[in-house]
Each structure stands twice: as structure tokens, then as C-alpha cells.
TrEMBL record:
<dbReference type="InterPro" id="IPR013106">
    <property type="entry name" value="Ig_V-set"/>
</dbReference>
<keyword id="KW-0812">Transmembrane</keyword>
<keyword id="KW-1133">Transmembrane helix</keyword>
<keyword id="KW-0732">Signal</keyword>
<feature type="region of interest" description="Disordered">
    <location>
        <begin position="199"/>
        <end position="242"/>
    </location>
</feature>
<keyword id="KW-0325">Glycoprotein</keyword>
<keyword id="KW-1015">Disulfide bond</keyword>
<feature type="transmembrane region" description="Helical">
    <location>
        <begin position="126"/>
        <end position="149"/>
    </location>
</feature>
<dbReference type="Pfam" id="PF07686">
    <property type="entry name" value="V-set"/>
</dbReference>
<keyword id="KW-0393">Immunoglobulin domain</keyword>
<dbReference type="InterPro" id="IPR051755">
    <property type="entry name" value="Ig-like_CS_Receptor"/>
</dbReference>
<dbReference type="InterPro" id="IPR013783">
    <property type="entry name" value="Ig-like_fold"/>
</dbReference>
<feature type="domain" description="Ig-like">
    <location>
        <begin position="22"/>
        <end position="93"/>
    </location>
</feature>
<dbReference type="InterPro" id="IPR036179">
    <property type="entry name" value="Ig-like_dom_sf"/>
</dbReference>
<dbReference type="InterPro" id="IPR003599">
    <property type="entry name" value="Ig_sub"/>
</dbReference>
<keyword id="KW-0472">Membrane</keyword>
<dbReference type="InterPro" id="IPR007110">
    <property type="entry name" value="Ig-like_dom"/>
</dbReference>
């Protein structure tokens, strides 16, 4: 048994391999000489976190992993189809021998093959995601610029109207101004103007404002009037006191 074990050799020639996502990875492993009974396996990683990728005793291998030479006792090269980023790692080809207890024990293993994915293919959706993000940022910038432009135009369009004066009492005149986008009714604006006049006392009678709007009218009939009396017409505007 010792002589059989000493003549056994396992060769795993690949140190590092790079494969694109979706392509087929080929891992080479060959054996020579004789060894005690036991399977040849492919493991990903070592220690407690290892994962068995291929076991010679499997009657129905995984469709993801296939043998390059089916049924061979010396060539244990495997193909891993549709390689994914999760498959990145170090793979080991190992020869196991069965112990009297029935447990498989590692007899010999290869040096390991480190498998990686090119950086451009590691995250295939990264480029597409970057393009979408740039497009969204550009769209957001256009929306903000459009809102600022519209606000600027609306602010410039609201120029104040010419001021109008309204007679208050016998000596004072109050300017009435109307501005675009100015809240409140004309009476509220007028009240605000009056409230700021110096020396004015607030009362209902004093807030009665007479706005004379004299217009040329056709001559009225003279019947019922005293001779020498001139016609006078005016309009009265009463503003409620606050």
C-alpha cells in the first residue's frame, strides 16, 4: 500500500485563470500512478468554507459542471459553464482515500487555480447603470433650470400699474396702486394706504371716501330746476372701516 501511494501523482498546472461572465471555464487536472481506493474531487476553497464542485462518485453530474473526458481514470479536467461572478475563487483538485471508518481523507491535492473575472465584466450592469444615472441627473438639471427660468419671467412680467389718487376729505389725496400678483382687494390696499397717513384718526365716518369721477354728460332737461343752477354729477365709493 505504501508503494502504491508513493507512485501516485496529481498535477494541476493552472495557477491563475481569467474568464468572462457567461463563458465556460476549463480547469485542468490529471493523475498518474496508483493510489488506494477513493474519489477525485474538485473543491472551491479550503477549510470549513469549502464547496464541492465535482465528485468522481456522482452518477449524475451537475449540468453546470461537466467532465472534459467522461469516465477517464486519469484525466479529471472539468468545464464550468455559464461562469458567474459568484463562481470567482480558488479551485483545488484533490485525491481522497477511504479510511476504515468510511470517511474520505485527503491524500493529495493540487496547488490550486485562482479564477478571476476581468474588471470590465465583473459587474456587467455597471456601465448601463452609470448611463441611466447620468441621464437622470441631466434631466433633473433641465427641470430645475426650466423652473428658475419660468419664475424669473413671471417675476419680471409683474410690473406695477401707474398710481391713481383718491381724494380723502378736502385736502389729502391717497395714491392707489395695483400690482400684479398682489394679494388683497382694492379696499384692502386702500385701507393699508390710509392706515399709514400721519395724523389720521381711524373711525367709520373718516373712512368714508368719496371718489369723484366727473364725466361729460348730455344736458339734462331743465324742467323742475331753478334758473342758473348748473348740473353736477359724481360717483360715491364707500369703503367699510376695518
Amino acid at each position: 500500500g505504501a508503494q502504491v501511494g508513493q507512485g501516485f501523482k496529481l498535477q494541476q498546472p493552472q495557477d491563475k485563470v481569467s474568464v468572462a461572465v457567461g463563458e465556460t471555464l476549463t480547469l485542468n487536472c490529471t493523475t498518474s500512478g496508483l493510489a488506494d481506493p477513493g474519489p477525485v474531487k474538485w473543491l472551491k476553497g479550503l477549510g470549513s468554507g469549502n464547496k464541492t464542485i465535482y465528485d468522481q462518485r456522482w452518477e449524475d453530474p451537475s449540468p453546470h459542471v461537466t467532465r472534459a473526458v467522461a469516465g477517464s481514470d486519469t484525466d479529471f479536467t472539468i468545464h464550468i459553464r455559464n461562469f458567474q461572478p459568484d463562481d470567482v475563487g480558488t479551485y483545488y483538485c484533490m485525491k481522497f482515500v477511504k479510511q476504515p471508518t468510511g470517511k474520505d481523507e485527503v491524500f493529495q491535492r493540487g496547488s490550486g487555480t485562482e479564477v478571476s473575472v476581468p474588471e470590465t465584466a465583473l459587474v456587467p450592469g455597471m456601465v448601463a447603470a452609470s448611463v441611466v444615472l447620468c441621464f437622470l441627473l441631466l434631466l433633473l438639471g433641465l427641470v430645475v433650470a426650466l423652473c428658475m427660468y419660468r419664475r424669473k419671467r413671471q417675476g419680471g412680467a409683474g410690473s406695477p400699474c401707474p398710481a391713481r389718487t383718491v381724494a380723502v376729505g378736502s385736502f389729502l389725496s391717497v395714491p392707489l396702486r395695483c400690482c400684479a400678483d398682489t394679494p388683497g382687494t382694492p379696499s384692502e390696499v386702500l385701507d393699508a394706504e390710509i392706515s399709514h397717513l400721519p395724523g389720521q384718526q381711524s373711525s367709520k365716518e373718516e373712512n368714508n371716501i368719496h371718489y369723484a369721477d366727473l364725466q361729460p354728460l348730455p344736458p339734462a332737461p331743465w324742467h323742475g330746476r331753478s334758473p342758473g343752477t348748473a348740473p353736477t354729477e359724481y360717483a360715491s365709493l364707500r369703503v367699510a372701516a376695518k
